[in-house]
Write a structure and sequence with these properties.
Order of helices and strands: HEHEHEH
CATH topology: Rossmann fold
Number of domains: 1
């Protein structure tokens, strides 16, 4: 038996608190080829697109240089989300608890 799944109308997904807020489009970049290709595509199709990069604190210097070049090409800032602590201390905490 083939049952169709009904999808709620977009208007019904918004309540009074979200309806007043403007819709934001945010693309998270990894610094790799796939997220770069998507960012370039979206730049041409969604002008209000915003870009972000989740910095682990363990990136090679070339990654930051690449993001600077990509930022220039996109014509918009790439927000760098920096952690309070870089990735390695967390890895050591969880690896140590996993191994012991």
């Amino acid at each position: 038996m083939n049952k169709s799944i009904s999808t709620p109308a977009p208007d019904s997904l918004c309540d009074a608190t979200t309806a007043a807020k403007p819709l934001r489009h945010i693309l998270s970049l990894s610094g790799g080829k796939d997220s770069t290709a998507l960012a370039i595509y979206m730049r041409d199709h969604v002008p209000q697109m915003e870009y972000a990069f989740a910095d682990t604190g363990e990136e090679v210097p070339e990654t930051y240089e690449y993001l600077d070049k990509l930022e220039s090409y996109l014509g918009k800032p790439i927000v760098r989300l920096n952690p309070d602590r870089p990735f390695n201390p967390w890895m050591l905490v969880f690896l140590t608890s996993y191994v012991s």
